[in-house]
Design brief:
Length: 517
């Protein structure tokens, strides 16, 4: 019997001399499991080891390699120290240990808690172990959450990065101290705005003087920072100024918890309402005095305009400059609405400055959408698509039939190999006869497995084409012969639109529509 040994360590390992070394705990797991294999006269196929990963992490590299090899039946047994080393999620226990492993002919064994899928009598105990491990994950998450909540409520900074203008106090954990070089820029931004300068104008002034934006400043000073996703990441932008002017951390208040995790099973976060933020006053030295802060907040309130659900917001956050990738902002002139790339206003020669009226863009989108619908819903074209859809279905059914036949034959060959092995153990056949016969069976089984994998991939590709064809037709049928767009239609149909510079000597503006279908 071929065995795959799986080891995992979740805690930060302090016993490593080098990062590439296995931890002592991992070494102990390996030694225990190798000894167990020797006692049961099992052959070790491979050792899969994940160090510094939690049992709830589904992206463990060796764990996923183990699952791929199990599906290809490269071994007969998965051996772990205990079930929680394999996973702490009850969902994965049911999916793999009780679901797919038996289908793949894989036995699961864990030494310490005596889990063994060959013993049907202890299935309930395995499920109980999975449930206990699930509770452990949830309890651990709640404990961590309560500790972090307590620290937030007491005004301790727990973030990975200090806000621009501050740095982490090396002598007091959770405390911020002023970074005077950056703080001087923060004071200047507040002062300029209080003197009547706009946010874009302030950004341009800073860029013209070569002052690095917060991300670039941290990079240059060797501080931790979040990797930017957009081009021109070294420049100050409108939104960086806007966010700075309303952040209470600059008046000495600790503001945290703006985002919260969706679940302890995922790292995904979502915005939280301001009523759920943790705001503690007077936790650190302010950069901005209260009088200046109050003046700036009053000016922001006076300038604020209510959000319009009309044409102004029709393409909000959906249109990007083709040159720099920056989201184009709306503007209004003589009752007409326009979209422009404000990146040209924040720095000299930073962008070509794409510009288009909302009315023109709306008409271009409608024309393209109607062209697609007319072309797609052409009777002959539609009949060809339906016929093509039918051909795909026939291809899928044919391949599925072949795959089923291959799987049945592969299972028979696996059974023959196991029976041969038992005959060898009982002395019915010699070792040499077993080696020769099992080699032929194994070769045929491997060949069939390749055919099965290829067939399954082709089935998935065909089903994807069928779904795209069906979804495409239904979607276009819902939005034909449009005269005007609304925000709902834009959200459903359009991922984003790229707008280029007007072609010299013409009124043509190149656009590229990235549809959601």
């Amino acid at each position: 019997m071929k065995v795959a040994i799986y080891c995992r360590l979740s805690e930060e390992d302090k016993n490593k001399q080098f990062e590439t070394d296995d931890s002592n705990s991992i070494q102990n797991q390996k030694a225990m499991l190798l000894q167990y294999c020797m006692e049961h006269k099992w052959e070790v196929y491979n050792i899969y080891s994940d160090d510094d990963y939690t049992g709830a992490d589904r992206k463990r590299p060796e764990f996923n390699r183990l699952l791929k090899d199990a599906e290809r039946h490269k071994f007969d047994i998965v051996l772990c120290k205990n079930q929680s080393r394999f996973t702490r999620e009850l969902e994965l226990v049911e999916k793999y240990i009780h679901g797919l492993f038996p289908l793949w002919g894989i036995r699961f064994v864990s030494v310490v808690d005596n889990a063994d899928t060959a013993n049907k009598g202890n299935k309930k105990s395995r499920q109980i172990n999975g449930l206990v491990n699930e509770w452990y994950l949830e309890d651990m998450s709640e404990n961590i959450r309560s500790v972090l909540t307590n620290r937030r409520q007491n005004g301790f900074h727990i973030g990975a990065f200090a806000l621009y203008g501050y740095k982490k106090d090396p002598d007091q954990k959770g405390h911020l101290i002023i970074d005077e070089e950056a703080a001087a820029v923060v004071r200047e931004v507040f002062t300029l705005f209080s003197q009547g300068y706009g946010k874009t104008a302030i950004a341009r002034m800073l860029n013209d003087r070569g002052i690095p934006n917060p991300t670039e400043y941290k990079r240059l000073h060797g501080l931790r920072y979040q990797q930017p996703k957009m081009k021109n990441s070294k420049l100050w932008k409108y939104f960086a100024i806007s966010d700075m002017l309303i952040n209470e951390i600059y008046i000495g208040n600790m503001v945290q918890g703006r985002y919260g995790s969706v679940s302890y099973k995922t790292k995904q976060n979502k915005p939280r309402p301001k009523s759920e933020w943790y705001i503690v006053e007077g936790t650190h030295e302010p950069i901005i005095d209260r009088a200046l802060w109050d003046k700036v907040q009053m000016m922001i309130a006076q300038r604020a305009k209510p959000f319009s659900v009309g044409t102004i917001g029709l393409f909000a956050k959906k249109v990007r400059c083709a040159n720099c990738g920056y989201i184009m902002r709306s503007s209004k002139n003589k009752e007409k609405h326009y979209l422009q790339c404000s990146n040209r206003h924040v720095s000299k020669d930073s962008c070509i400055g794409s510009f288009i009226s909302v009315d023109k863009l709306e008409q271009m989108v409608i024309n393209e959408l109607n062209r697609l619908s007319n072309e797609y819903l052409n009777k002959e074209e539609l009949e060809r698509n339906i016929e093509f859809h039918g051909d795909l279905k026939a291809q899928r059914n044919s391949i599925l039939s072949n795959v089923t036949t291959y799987e049945k034959r592969s299972a028979e060959l696996s059974k023959y190999i196991r029976e041969l092995y038992m005959d060898k153990v009982k002395g019915v056949i010699s070792d040499s006869d077993y080696a020769e016969m099992s080699k032929d069976f194994s070769y045929d089984r491997d060949r069939l497995e390749h055919l099965i994998n290829d067939g399954q991939k082709r089935i998935l590709e065909i089903e994807k084409k069928m779904k795209i064809s069906e979804d495409h037709r239904e979607l276009i049928e819902s939005y034909t012969n449009l005269k005007h767009l609304n925000r709902e239609i834009v959200d459903i149909l359009i991922d984003y639109i790229s707008v280029g510079k007007r072609i010299p000597g013409t009124r043509d503006i190149p656009i590229e529509i990235h549809w959601n279908f």
